[in-house]
Design brief:
It contains 8 helices and 4 strands. With about 190 residues, it is mainly alpha-helical. The chain is globular.
């Protein structure tokens, strides 16, 4: 297998990125899934990840494939993920259940937002839910802790503009529908 980043470093004037990609893209047993690894490089320089070469690689991949998914090192460990976040359309934060603290997760979000990353969600992995009740308990405790940490004005506003009928049985209705919920930030 060719070492894509090594070849890119060795030749600053790569003319045919598409041809180079053909030599490094690996097929998998799932015929519609292909993988491109970084090769044997132990440390990829921040400068390379945020370079024009990387931009051209991602552009070539996006023309060839429906989806290009990048897996990066942890945001708090190295700057690679932040550099990559500026080169992609969307970012999904992946956090390990029971390992990352809320404060760290907020720092991850802050660093990515400072780089203008388009964060579309968070995935919690390695959640050991032996039954569905654990998940809901975990979620409820998380939400309750958040409420204690910070008063959420939007929560209060949405409660007061609910479209439910009043408990007194009257048929008063609102003149305007409730506002469409917007994605929330972690903080």
């Amino acid at each position: 297998m060719a070492d894509l980043l090594h070849e890119m470093n060795a030749n600053d004037h790569v003319k045919d990125i598409e041809g180079l990609l053909k030599g490094v893209v690996q097929r998998t047993p799932e015929r519609r899934l292909v993988v491109l690894t970084c090769g044997s490089i132990k440390q990829v320089a921040f400068e390379l990840l945020s370079s024009e070469i990387m931009h051209k690689i991602l552009e070539a991949l996006s023309h060839r494939f429906d989806f290009v998914i990048l897996d990066s090192p942890p945001v708090l460990a190295v700057s690679d993920a932040v550099a990559l976040s500026t080169q992609v359309d969307y970012v999904v934060i992946v956090a390990e259940a029971g390992r990352i603290r809320r404060k760290e997760l907020r720092e991850v979000e802050s660093r990515l937002r400072e780089a203008n990353a388009n964060i579309i969600g968070i995935t919690l992995n390695r959640l050991k839910a032996k039954n569905t009740g654990f998940y809901y308990t975990y979620y409820r405790e998380y939400v309750e802790e958040e409420k204690d940490d910070k008063k959420d004005a939007r929560y209060k506003k949405n409660k007061s503009t609910s479209s439910e009928k009043p408990r007194d049985g009257s048929d008063r209705s609102q003149s305007e529908p409730a506002a469409k919920p917007q994605p929330e930030q972690l903080s």
